[in-house]
């Protein structure tokens, strides 16, 4: 069964074509600068070669159409006709409380996702445009929606509610939803597969650490707590997002700098985090280079970044009643050896014993990086959200 996975952003469309259930990637690429005159499609061919095709694509339908053309083209294609595509899976960011799992997309589903636009105004509209594009171009093909927020819907009210007037929850849905759910679900299940552990009888902490970062506490297959909230701004310090901040401090800054809603949003989402503290970059590779050059603010940013991760590991271990597996994933989690070492240092009393030598030489592959004597298994598991989407699409569309 050939399944096309689409991840539609405001100015980009990422895609992968899978042969399922074999999990073979037949084609992959991304449209960038969507809506601009210099938009282009960047493809990765099966042999690893990168091909860039420039074409003006004013909106999502034209982008999806160009992707489909190249999937069937004599030069770059891997299928002869659109009829070979059996289903399409979509990444959908926010499903609110309406979606606790992936679903076949119907008019009713689209209407409910539209109702969640206020909760994700930058993400849900382009996600919906991708669905609409497939409806126009491949009207008879089943589509499946896989939500970033669905996995965390198992949280109990005491974990997801804010201590705000209850009316703002009833009127506006203000609560903690969590994000990166597809990634957290994939790596937690994959870790148990690798270790031969029962997923429904395990205490797991997943650390999706990158420019955007979040952590989940998973007990017996269900999320009991997460770091992100109503929006992806809460929780860990990130590339440009502030993470946890005293809301009183934010009100103070708004008054002092006379910020409107847009200015305030830019402050906490685009001007803060690693970039805001360091004044250099949101990219941790740049921060590491600056630290080596003796930049004190870069060191401060790194120390703050690592401190937040360690603090949440301790909090989640308390909630879980101990921990069996800690997983690092995402761009930083998979590749930044120093963060993994610092986060796990001094945690032997919690049963965490990192193999520092193995950790120091390991990047971006599935591996256990804790010592054999460690009571908590520490792992790197590269995330694969697209494969998770393809798997859910196979299950639902296959019916």
UniProtKB/TrEMBL annotation:
ATP binds at residues 14, 208-212, 283-285, 331-335. One of its GO terms (molecular function) is ATP binding. Pfam families: Acetate_kinase. Pathway: Metabolic intermediate biosynthesis; acetyl-CoA biosynthesis; acetyl-CoA from acetate: step 1/2. The active site is at residue 148. One of its GO terms (biological process) is acetyl-CoA biosynthetic process. Its cofactor is Mg(2+); Mn(2+). Mg(2+). Can also accept Mn(2+). Its EC number is 2.7.2.1. Signal peptide: none annotated. Homodimer. This is Acetate kinase. The gene is ackA.
């Amino acid at each position: 069964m050939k399944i096309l996975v689409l991840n539609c952003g405001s100015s980009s469309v990422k895609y992968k074509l899978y042969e399922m259930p074999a999990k073979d990637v037949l084609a992959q690429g991304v449209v960038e600068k969507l809506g601009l005159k210099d938009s282009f499609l960047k493809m990765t061919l099966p042999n690893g070669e990168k091909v860039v095709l420039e074409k003006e694509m004013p909106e999502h339908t034209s982008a999806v159409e160009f992707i489909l053309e190249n999937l069937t083209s004599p030069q770059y294609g891997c299928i002869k006709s659109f009829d070979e595509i059996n289903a399409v899976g979509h990444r959908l960011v926010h499903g609110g409380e309406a979606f606790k799992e992936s679903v076949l997309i119907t008019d009713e589903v689209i209407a409910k996702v539209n109702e969640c636009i206020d909760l994700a105004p930058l993400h849900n509209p382009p996600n919906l445009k991708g669905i609409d594009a497939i409806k126009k171009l491949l009207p008879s093909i089943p589509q499946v929606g896989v939500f970033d927020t669905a996995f965390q819907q198992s949280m109990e009210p005491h974990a997801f509610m804010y201590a705000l007037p209850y009316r703002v929850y009833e009127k506006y849905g203000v609560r903690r939803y969590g994000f990166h759910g597809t990634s957290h679900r994939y790596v937690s299940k994959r870790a148990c597969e690798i270790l031969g552990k029962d997923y429904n009888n395990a205490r797991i902490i997943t650390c999706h650490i990158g420019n955007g970062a979040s952590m989940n506490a998973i007990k017996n297959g269900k999320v009991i707590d997460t770091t992100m909230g109503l929006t992806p701004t809460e929780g860990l310090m990130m590339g440009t997002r502030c993470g946890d901040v005293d809301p009183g401090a934010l009100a103070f800054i708004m008054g002092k700098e006379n910020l409107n809603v847009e200015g305030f949003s830019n402050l906490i989402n685009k001007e803060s985090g690693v970039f805001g503290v360091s004044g250099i970059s949101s990219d941790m590779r740049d921060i590491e280079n600056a630290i080596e050059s003796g930049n004190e603010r870069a060191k401060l940013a790194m120390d703050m970044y690592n401190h937040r991760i360690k603090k949440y590991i301790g909090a989640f271990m308390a909630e879980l009643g101990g921990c069996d597996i800690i997983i690092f994933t995402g761009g930083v989690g998979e590749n930044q050896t120093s963060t993994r070492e610092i986060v796990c240092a001094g945690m032997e009393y919690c049963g965490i014993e990192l193999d520092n030598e193995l950790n120091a030489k390991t990047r971006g592959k599935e591996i256990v990086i804790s010592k054999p004597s460690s009571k908590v298994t520490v792992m790197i598991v590269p995330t694969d959200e697209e494969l998770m989407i393809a798997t859910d699409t196979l299950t639902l569309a296959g019916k």
